[in-house]
Amino acid sequence: MRASTHLHQFIKDIVDLCCPDNVHVCSGSDDEYDQMCKIMEHNGTAIRLNQLKRQNCLYVRTDPSDVARVEEVTYICSQNKDDAGPTNNWRDPIEMREKILSLFSRSMHGRTMYVIPYVMGPIGSPMSKCGIEITDSPYVVANMKIMSRMGREALSLIEKGEEFVAGVHSVGMPINNVNEEVPWPCNKEKLIAHFPESRQIWSFGSGYGGNALLGKKCFALRIASAIGRDDGWLAEHMLIMGVTNPNGVTKYFVAAFPSACGKTNLAMMLSTLPGWSISCIGDDIAWMYFGDDGRLYAINPENGFFGVAPGTSVENNPNAMKCIEKNTIFTNVALTEDFDVWWEGMTKVPPQGLRDWKGNAWDSNSKSTAAHPNSRFTTPIRQCPSFDKMGDDLRGVPIDGIIFGGRRSTLIPLVLESFDWVHGVLLGASQSSEKTAAAVGVVGEVRHDPFAMLPFCGYNMGDYFQHWLDQEKDGRKMPKIFSVNWFRKDDNGSFIWPGFKENVRVLKWIFERIDETVSANKTPIGYLPKELDRVGLNISDDKLNQLFDIDIDGFLKNIEDLYNYFNIFGDKFPKVLHQKLNIIYFNLKNNNLFS
Q: Per-residue pLDDT tens for 230-244?
């Protein structure tokens, strides 16, 4: 949508449709945030945590029916069904609008309607985009304050004529003679509809996470990926990090990982190598474009972290633990007797007297987990000790390398470098990961997740692969592309690579490959290290060799599976990727192991 007249008409139309008792245009001020917190406390939605342990922090429990993404009712409503592609749920836009009008009619009765103007990305950056989210949830207002640049500056930009993505969210529980206020209002029926052509988002029934914080996955990935396709840039499910060597030279990387693969831990990692350090610009989303100098640049459109809590600890992510000491909203974790938080993996021994995410008494003999597997913390990005000052640079940071990863217990090497840009895009398109106990499906089953964008690409992924290929043009300095896998196991089922802080050794090799100061072995699947920096690391030659062993039969079966998977995209799947896959298959089949 464009210009202030459209904004005012948009607000009026939603008021007429949803019939709220009050309308509040959000300023983004600290006082307003405090007021939202007080409203949540008054409604029983939130509990104030121990101020001596968690300064200005809130604890929130959702309704047990409203705890995660609702991919099965998340739709791309493009004019042409083929534009949504085989990996998205598609609905006809006209039919969906009729459904929306029915659901949202009087949905905010008895509630306050909040109008949230916000900017995704640093204000003033040519890559940043404006949004408006209309919601009836103070929880959403408070979280959007942390996660975006929200308030008067954003409103001013929109009133001056900046285009904005329009989002409408309702918990779907009007207060009337039938429904009374409850601590966590939501509706059994849930729906998230994206309209790529008109740049609109409608979300009904859920008050949690990316279902309700519309600037996050809905705008910053699904709608933004469609805008990027149209305008020639990339909106990606990627962290942004800096790696600095002992000489003070910094290179910036983006990295895509499916869920449960340690993306946040990598983004905030501490280094075990003397002189090497890691800085964080973002842990989840990157918007990227090629500058006039031919280099790829990235900004983080978000302003905070919406991190998964379980598994986060001082041992594996001390920077995250420092982040959440203050000004943080915790959702669906466990609550201690002295009003602090806890989750599985936070400490080896749980504290006594815990109440779980449903409010029930919990101990180590309980059958369920204390914290929900998808429990979260929402915290300002600048509280991260390793936050990179370039994170606010209006141009973004220049990207030297792109990394794809997944959780694979066999087959995939610890690290490899692609032959070229086309092979790198194939690595992204081939990305897959084994399901964990927290995911739906069989544990260990491999799930295809191209570019870690399977739930988030707002258009046909066949076209998406081609869009990546189209980025390579004369005069551009293309970043090198790498694949990593920290999760390979030995015959006893134990992880071979120590992971976590030691992953800096892999990043060092990637850094030096970009500088062409270390050599590699050319294999049918890519360039593999001749040697990694192992000083101070207790890993044998045999174990290291296992991390780079090429199982030819296993790879041939994997490629055959990829052929079948890529067939779902039909003629949309780029022929050049098919040809590259054929070459790799031929070289493996003929045992052409190169050097």
A: 999 999 999 999 999
Express each pLDDT in 349-394 by its tens digit.
Answer: 999 999 999 999 999 999 999 999 999 999 999 999 999 999 999 9
CATH tag, 306-383 = 2.170.8.10
Question: Which tokens sit at 304?
Answer: 């905070």
Q: Residues 288, 254: contact at Cβ < 8 Å?
A: yes
Calpha distance 397→251 (Å, rounded): 9
The CATH class for the domain spanning 3-232 reads: alpha beta
Q: Where in the chain is the domain with CATH 3.40.449.10?
A: 3-232
pLDDT of residue 437: 45
Could you tell me the pTM of the whole model?
Answer: 0.97
Report how far residue 503's alpha carbon sits from residue 497's, in angstroms, rounded to the nearest whole number: 9
CA–CA separation, 21 vs 37, rounded Å? 20
SS3 409: coil
Q: Hey, is 350 helix, strand or coil? A: coil
* Cα distances (Å, whole numbers) of residue 349 to 303, 333, 345, 466: 33, 16, 9, 49
Q: pLDDT (tens digit, 9 = 90+) per residue, 304-338?
A: 999 999 999 999 999 999 999 999 999 999 999 99
Question: Where in the sequence of the chain do the CATH 3.90.228.20 domains occur?
Answer: 236-304+388-589
Query: What's residue 594's pLDDT?
Result: 62
Residues with a catalytic annotation lie at: 261
- pLDDT-based confidence at 593, cuts 50/70/90? low
End-to-end alpha carbon distance in the chain = 56
Using one digit for the tens of pLDDT, what is the confidence trace for 78-114? Answer: 999 999 999 999 999 999 999 999 999 999 999 999 9
Residue 477: strand, helix, or coil: coil
Residues 6 or more apart from 443 whose CB is under 8 A from it? 434, 435, 436, 437
Q: Record the tokens describing residue 172, joined without a space.
A: 């779907």
Measure the CA–CA gap between 468 and 131, rounded to whole angstroms: 26
- Rounded mean pLDDT, 141-168: 97
d(CA 275, CA 359): 46
Task: Give the max Cα distance, the chain.
Answer: 76
- pLDDT averaged over the chain? 95
DSSP 410: S
Across 395-472, where does the E strand assignment appear?
Answer: 397-405, 415-417, 432-434, 446-448
Ramachandran area for residue 164 (φ above 0: left; ψ -120 to 50: alpha; else beta): beta
Q: Could you read off the pLDDT of 460-496 as tens digits, one per residue? A: 999 999 999 999 999 999 999 999 999 999 999 999 9
Pair 210, 183: CB distance under 8 Å: no
Domain topology for 236-304+388-589:
Phosphoenolpyruvate Carboxykinase; domain 3 (3.90.228)
Closest CA to 528 of 487, 560, 581, 485: 485
**Beta carbons within 10 angstroms of residue 520's beta carbon:** 18
Contact 167, 131 (CB under 8 A): yes
Residue 439 pLDDT = 45
What is the side-by-side strand order in the sheet with 354-355?
A: 341-342, 334-335, 354-355, 361-362
Residues constituting the chain? 595
All residues at 6 or more sequence positions from 111 whose CB lies less than 8 Å from its CB, including other chains = 20, 21, 22, 136, 174, 175
Residue 422: which residues within 8 A CB-CB, separation 6 or more?
A: 469, 472, 576, 577, 580
